[in-house]
Amino acid sequence: MEALNQRSLERVVSQRALQIGSSFPCRICVIGFLCGVCLTSLFLAALTSFGAFEFGALSISPAISSSTNPTSGECNVKQKNLERWFISQEKLTVGGDERVSLLYSSWGNLVTQSANEDTHLGKSNLPKAPHLEDCKLSAEINQRLDNRVQNDSFPPWTIWKGQLNNIPWTAEDEQLWYYRHQIVSEGTYPPWIKGSDEENYPLTRKVQRDMWLHQHPLNCGDGNVKFLIADWERLPGLGIGAQIAGMSGLLAIAINEKRVLVTSYYNRADHNGCKGSSRSSWSCYFFPETSLECRDRAFKLMKQKEAWEKGIITIKENYTSKEIWSGRTPRSWGEPWSYLQPTTDINGSLIAYHRKMDRRWWRAQAVRYLMRFHTEYTCNLLNQERHAAFGWEAARMVLESQHTDFSEGVEKVAEHDIENFVWSSHKPWSPRPILSMHVRMGDKACEMKVVGFKEYMHLAERIRKHFPDLKNIWLSTEMQEVVDQSRLYPNWMFYYTNVTRQMGNMTMATYEASLGREMSTNYPLVNFLMATEADFFIGALGSTWCFLIDGMRNTGGKVMSGYLSVNKDRFW
């Protein structure tokens, strides 16, 4: 009886629910709910197809795609950014830009595959990615340019760049081969120096050639060859910039004492990204400072008591902090710092002279030598970042200029000699002109005058008055508040690494620890190298990091681009 009553009750409830469900108001509610679900799904799908994309350990986002959470004082500006963003989404969805998305994703897979499988980037049937570099090929070329050929005094350095040296020779080219050999024997053109002599610090080419010779003696086993073996600085609180500055001082000591500098343990390369023998070594990121033969010889001599007694071996601990950080600049080339080009602007005036011109010139030469060639690992990091930052624009640009449907698996057209040997040496594409800006704030206030982001942007506007086509900014900063403030400038396109940044008064040491060793090393070095290639640079000379970026630019053909600084070095 109880079961019968239960079934009767269920039947009554079901009939009542059916009556309610068939009513007009209820039908309207259900239809509205389903439409809401559909619209939400479409909106989420749009969000995942545009904006910030991630590849590998790092990613970069155009600022326009991250304009969220506006404050009340920013509503008008933010609303315009959001409107522009939604319009872009609509065009991508309705206008059929799925091909751009597909090509972007395909290139991304290629970048990941190239990094993980050590393959050539250029062997894909996809359209050529103008913003990417064939890292394996570049490493092979650089390896050849960093080693002597047979009994020559120098590697094959000529005015023939990149792949031109690989052009097949014929019997008729004997005279050309003779002249080429003559140029190589003089070592006049170290290939890591770009631009004319006037576009670099004085004597840059000669100094770089002589430093390479000093660090690569013909016979490392010669009893007259002496060594200085040094770990990289590991003192708490010292950043990458300070480590490089310290090693620059040790390189100066080695040259003054006619020793070959051999670097040892590098704590920032002690992570899983650096494989094999490159782990815990500078050679994970850049070519080693000396040859493998010299390194092996130096570490072998370290175990011999006689080598210590005769002074053949010295180490970092043999020198005082003053000798390392502010020691005598090598005078082997005279005093070329006496006539440095006055292209640095501080407070609207060019700086023609200051008390530390010798240090500025020397550190520029030292950092250029130590970073003369990227390793394949560093090249892959740069590829990942360029793709995250510029890949979408590059894909759209390529598809607009070509009408081939790459999704059909079209066989790649054979390239001609000019493509293989000439154009292959061109640097990866990026939107030009582009301004690099390094904003240093936070705990740096204890060492230098710190100014707000508004002052940096004031300098950016000064540059744009003279170069009105400038609209792109590569923004490098540890502070989240700087990234947030960049959204107040809708007439600029900002690019920056998508990484967790400092909030509040967090110290740099605590911040780096929160990121982990691999991330806290990789993303600053990528930002550093991107800054050296930008058309213009704004920074703070009171920051060692900016000081070194400036040095790399002034030995990389960028002297006449100038440098606008928000402050001066504290030692000037």
TrEMBL record:
Alphabetized UniProt keyword annotations: Membrane, Transmembrane, Transmembrane helix
Membrane-spanning segments: 28-53
Signal peptide, first to last residue: none
GO biological process: protein N-linked glycosylation
Presence of the UniProt keyword tRNA-binding in the record: no
GO molecular function per UniProt: alpha-(1->6)-fucosyltransferase activity
Superkingdom: Eukaryota
Gene3D superfamilies, alphabetized: 3.40.50.11350
Entry protein name: Alpha-(1,6)-fucosyltransferase
Phylogenetic lineage: Eukaryota, Viridiplantae, Streptophyta, Embryophyta, Tracheophyta
